């Protein structure tokens, strides 16, 4: 508003110094603080903000001129009224002359900039030396002239007199002390006019929308008329009104009368509200309605100070009822994503409604009402009916909407709870069903990635959602003991083994990082360690690692996650491998190397405590093993060596008649092959005696050599399975396009047995760890109550355990005299040094 | 026809050669390590005195340097000599 050209600029004259500096016609003429609530604010601050606002109350350049023209002024005089901001020198001249002026005309000059503009046209200013004598009926006649003009304005007729004449008349009356009378007469005139208008309204059309138009027209006319009247009676506003604090400005008194005579009339008000609500209801139902009419009428309520009390409560009640009905109906029939989209559209439409015609102050209550009825009332049902399904279908857009809508009504906590329940349910289904073990880890990785996407794209990286995801993963992944840890270890093994599918180191790195996140959730990390160790041993001893770098990278990830204690033995395994290479170098330089014949021997010397142990085999040491052992023990006193032959590998040269081949076979397979060097058709018992291998193992070995993909042996009689009655010899017809061949071992059926064995070892190890922890704690504390010892143990040990298990270990330590019970207090233990 | 072995990658496991199972000082297994260590094997070696008694090296070093031990073997009370 402040940028609009001023109709009546304030001047530096003392008579108008308290005039408001605001450019709006309403506020320019109203005295600050001269009105009580609600008018004091309603005429200015509740008005729309832009100067191009079509409201009759907004200060624009066009409207006052047009109003003046409509009231019968010539366009030149109308222009004269608003031109002064462009001619500041007029003020100057005026002030200079007013200082010495003795005439009443000059003494009021400071506030009459508009008049000066007419200099040289219809008016000229002359300084009178003596005040003119007035005719006795001057006041009466002048009023009649003014009254005629006011009536002409009210009746939309041209005014007979020139504006300048009327303006001077007002000035004169005010100067003569007739301000109060003039004010009384003028306002009475306006009031009686409005009374007539109100009577017209009471018989106006029954149709509510038509009625709205009629009231609006009445309001528009009132505003235009008041602008014209005020410009005529400007001097009254500037003098009498300003000088009397309890007198309302002409504009404000116009509003008061309009409110009292028209808008506040019960019937009119009711019809207005009903009509407005009807239009809004129609618009909400999808019809297009006359928004500018609504806007104009609601601005009218604001200007009259009636918006908050007369309109808003009715509007909010109607809104509440509509959306309560709508929500209750749609929540049961509409699919959840559709419902959410609908709510979003509703909120959008209501926001636009505020922009288009509602008062901005209604915004908060309106949106809160819609949110409460459409969202808050139905949070539980929305979540129950739709959340899980949307998550399963990965509906990013719908879930984003879910989150943002519930966020508007403090509904995120129930959503978070539902998210946690969903993760646990879905995760438990993956983890607890043994039939899904084959794909468990990949499925978990996929699930985690999908949920991460939801978290970032739908749930705005919300920390609480992130935490609840972590907790939920921990909860479900530990619902099943040991298996997830085992499968993650196996999954990593597959990735680290030579020939894995990951093309690049970076891809492998990414997968390993994501596996580490799953690993982090697992409580029984020792189970993982045991299986990981088995696999690592296999990769190292059989040279199966894809890359040393990846192995090291994985190790440092584990170290970072679990600390050096966890990875110490794994690192020891790598160290043993390096050390073994050094040992072989010095062995090959020793005198013992000459005893090897044409066999190239390499030995991996393992430190017993680091590696997964195998059951010792009762096999005779071969001669070259004895040679190596002599060499080793000579160098390492205090140590003893045992051989783990089933873990050995050989490269065997086989001179098949149709082409010599090199066979990559296990040491045990090698023993069988060597046994057949004896001759043709060797029987099962002969081989068994020769190799000293147990029956079932031997059957499996023969199966791998005679019935597998690469059949280097013939079996007699032929058949798919090996029997103890069969005889064997080399397959003299053997051909293969490759020179070097790997003969696979029969995949051990006892993988399950092996797993059970590993789990048993884990159990054993846990007992040792518990024992060690108890001794460590008791040694430090000397004496400790049972419960305190238990809580210390729960703090220190990283695997799941039950108090009963711990109690057993304590009993065992008491038996072994590490501890004793306190004689005075049986529930306290004392450390025995 | 015959086959012959060209290369042999064998696996051997070493451990300490001791008669006792546990260290007389810390009571931990010789296959394990002393209470100060985390890893067995070369990280926590065993030593034998001239009296033929065997301990974790870390244990006996601590022991013989303690004021009351008088440089004696804790098992036989003979002077401890490596
Ligand atoms: Zn010891
Ligand atoms: Zn040690
Ligand atoms: Zn001794």
Structure description:
The complex is a heterodimer of chains A (833) and B (82). Chain A is mostly helical. Chain A has 4 domains: 1-14 and 46-82 and 134-290, Up-down Bundle (5 helical Cullin repeat like); 374-577, 5 helical Cullin repeat like (Up-down Bundle), CATH 1.20.1310.10; 648-750, Ribosomal Protein S5, domain 2; 755-831, Arc Repressor Mutant, subunit A, CATH 1.10.10. In chain A, a hairpin with a 6-residue loop joins strand 10 and strand 11. Chain A is elongated. Residues 1-121 of chain A have low confidence and may be disordered. Chain B has 82 residues and is mainly beta. Chain B has one domain (15-82): Zinc/RING finger domain, C3HC4 (zinc finger) (Herpes Virus-1, 2-Layer Sandwich). Chain B is 10% helix and 24% strand. Chain B is built from 1 helix and 3 strands, in the order βββα. Chain B has one helix at residues 57-64, and strands spanning 3-16, 46-48, 54-56. In chain B, strand 2 (46-48) and strand 3 (54-56) form a beta hairpin. At the A-B interface, helix 28, strand 1, helix 29, strand 2 and strand 3 of A face strand 1 of B. Chain A: GO terms for molecular function: ubiquitin protein ligase binding. Chain A: Belongs to the cullin family.
Sequence-ordered SSE layout with sheet pairings:
The complex is a heterodimer of chains A (833) and B (82).
Chain A: H1 25-29, H2 39-42, H3 62-70, H4 75-81, H5 88-98, H6 104-107, H7 113-116, H8 138-154, H9 163-175, H10 179-202, H11 208-232, H12 234-243, H13 250-263, H14 266-284, H15 291-303, H16 307-333, H17 336-356, H18 363-374, H19 379-392, H20 396-407, H21 412-431, H22 440-457, H23 463-477, H24 483-496, H25 505-521, H26 525-541, H27 548-562, H28 564-588, E1 600-607, H29 623-635, E2 639-643, E3 649-656, E4 659-666, H30 667-675, E5 682-683, H31 684-691, H32 695-706, E6 713-716, E7 727-730, E8 740-742, H33 751-781, E9 783-785, H34 786-796, H35 803-815, E10 819-821, E11 828-831
Parallel strand pairs in A: 4-8
Antiparallel strand pairs in A: 3-4, 5-7, 6-7, 9-11, 10-11
Chain B: E1 3-16, E2 46-48, E3 54-56, H1 57-64
GO cellular component, one term (chain A): nucleus
Pathway (chain A): Protein modification; protein ubiquitination
Keywords (chain A): DNA damage, DNA repair, Isopeptide bond, Phosphoprotein, Ubl conjugation, Ubl conjugation pathway
């Amino acid at each position: 508003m402040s940028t609009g050209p001023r109709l009546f600029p304030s001047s530096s004259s003392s008579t108008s110094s308290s005039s408001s500096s605001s450019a709006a016609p309403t506020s320019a003429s109203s005295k600050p603080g001269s009105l009580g609530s609600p008018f004091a604010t309603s005429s200015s601050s509740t008005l729309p903000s832009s100067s191009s606002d079509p409201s009759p109350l907004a200060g624009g350049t066009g409207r006052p001129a047009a109003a003046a023209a409509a009231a019968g002024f010539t366009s030149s005089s109308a222009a004269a009224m608003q031109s002064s901001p462009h001619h500041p020198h007029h003020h100057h001249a005026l002030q200079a002359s007013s200082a010495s002026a003795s005439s009443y005309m000059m003494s009021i000059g400071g506030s009459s900039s508009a008049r000066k503009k007419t200099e040289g046209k219809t008016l000229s200013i002359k300084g009178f030396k003596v005040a003119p004598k007035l005719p006795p009926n001057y006041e009466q006649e002048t009023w009649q002239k003014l009254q005629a003009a006011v009536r002409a304005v009210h009746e939309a007729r041209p005014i007979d007199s020139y504006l300048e004449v009327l303006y001077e008349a007002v000035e004169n009356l005010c100067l003569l002390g007739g301000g109060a009378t003039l004010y009384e007469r003028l306002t009475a005139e306006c009031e009686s006019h409005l009374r007539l208008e109100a009577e017209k309204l009471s018989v106006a059309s029954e149709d509510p929308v038509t009625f709205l138009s009629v009231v609006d027209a009445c309001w528009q006319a009132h505003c235009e008329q008041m602008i014209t009247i005020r410009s005529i009676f400007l001097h009254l506003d500037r003098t009498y009104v300003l000088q009397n604090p309890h007198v309302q400005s002409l504009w404000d008194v116009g509003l008061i009368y309009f409110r009292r005579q028209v808008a506040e009339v019960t019937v009119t008000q009711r019809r207005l509200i009903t009509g407005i609500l009807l239009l809004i209801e129609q618009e909400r139902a999808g019809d297009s309605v006359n928004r500018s009419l609504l806007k104009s009428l609601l601005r009218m309520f604001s200007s009259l100070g009636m918006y908050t009390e007369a309109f808003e409560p009715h509007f909010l009640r109607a809104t509440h009822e509509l959306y309560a009905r709508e929500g209750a109906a749609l929540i049961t029939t509409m699919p959840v994503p559709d419902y959410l989209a609908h709510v979003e559209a509703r909120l959008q439409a209501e926001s636009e409604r505020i922009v288009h015609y509602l008062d901005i102050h209604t915004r908060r209550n309106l949106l809160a009402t819609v949110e409460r009825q459409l969202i808050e009332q139905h949070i539980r049902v929305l979540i129950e009916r739709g959340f899980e399904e949307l998550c399963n279908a990965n509906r990013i857009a719908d879930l984003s909407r879910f989150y943002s809508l519930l966020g508007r009504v403090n509904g995120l906590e129930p959503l978070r709870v539902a998210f946690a329940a969903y993760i646990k349910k879905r995760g438990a289904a993956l983890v607890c069903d043994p039939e899904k073990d084959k794909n468990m880890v990949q499925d978990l990785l996929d699930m985690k990635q999908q949920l991460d996407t939801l978290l970032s794209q739908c749930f705005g990286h919300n920390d609480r959602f992130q935490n609840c995801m972590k907790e939920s993963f921990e909860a479900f992944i530990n619902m099943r003991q040991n298996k997830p840890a085992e499968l993650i270890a196996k999954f990593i093994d597959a990735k680290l083994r030579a020939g894995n599918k990951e093309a690049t180191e970076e891809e492998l790195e990414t997968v390993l990082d994501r596996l580490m996140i799953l690993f982090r959730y697992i409580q029984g990390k020792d189970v993982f360690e045991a299986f990981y160790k088995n696999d690592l041993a296999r990769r190292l001893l059989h040279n199966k690692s894809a890359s040393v770098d990846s192995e090291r990278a994985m190790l440092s990830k584990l170290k970072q996650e679990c600390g050096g204690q966890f990875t110490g033995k794994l690192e020891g395994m790598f160290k043993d491998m390096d050390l073994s290479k050094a040992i072989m170098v010095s062995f090959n330089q020793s005198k013992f190397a000459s005893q090897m014949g044409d066999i190239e021997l390499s030995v991996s010397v393992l430190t017993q405590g680091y590696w997964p142990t195998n059951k010792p085999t009762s096999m005779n040491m071969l001669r070259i093993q004895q040679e190596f052992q002599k060499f080793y023990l000579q160098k390492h006193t205090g140590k003893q060596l045992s051989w783990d032959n089933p873990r050995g590998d050989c490269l065997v040269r086989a001179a098949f008649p149709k082409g010599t081949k090199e066979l990559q076979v296990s040491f045990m397979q090698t023993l069988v092959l060597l046994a057949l060097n004896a001759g043709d058709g060797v029987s099962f018992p002969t081989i068994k005696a020769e190799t000293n291998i147990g029956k079932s193992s031997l059957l499996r070995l023969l199966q791998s050599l005679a019935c597998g993909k690469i059949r280097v042996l013939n079996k007699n009689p032929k058949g798919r399975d090996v029997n103890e009655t069969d005889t064997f010899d080399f397959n003299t017809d053997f051909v293969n396009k490759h020179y070097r061949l790997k003969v696979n071992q029969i995949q051990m059926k006892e993988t399950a047995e092996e797993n059970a064995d590993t789990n048993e070892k884990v159990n054993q190890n846990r007992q040792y760890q518990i024992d060690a922890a108890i001794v460590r704690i008791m040694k430090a504390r000397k004496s400790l109550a049972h419960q305190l010892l238990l809580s210390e143990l729960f703090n220190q040990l990283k695997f799941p355990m039950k108090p009963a298990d711990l109690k057993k270990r304590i009993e065992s330590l008491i038996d072994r005299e590490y501890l004793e019970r306190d004689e005075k207090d049986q529930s306290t233990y004392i450390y025995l040094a | 026809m015959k086959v012959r072995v060209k290369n042999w990658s064998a696996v051997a496991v070493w451990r300490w050669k001791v008669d006792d199972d546990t260290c007389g000082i810390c009571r931990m297994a010789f296959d394990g390590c002393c209470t100060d260590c985390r890893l067995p094997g070369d990280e926590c070696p065993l030593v034998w005195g001239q009296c033929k008694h065997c301990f974790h090296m870390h244990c006996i070093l601590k022991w013989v340097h303690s004021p009351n031990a008088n440089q004696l073997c804790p098992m036989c009370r003979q002077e401890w000599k490596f």
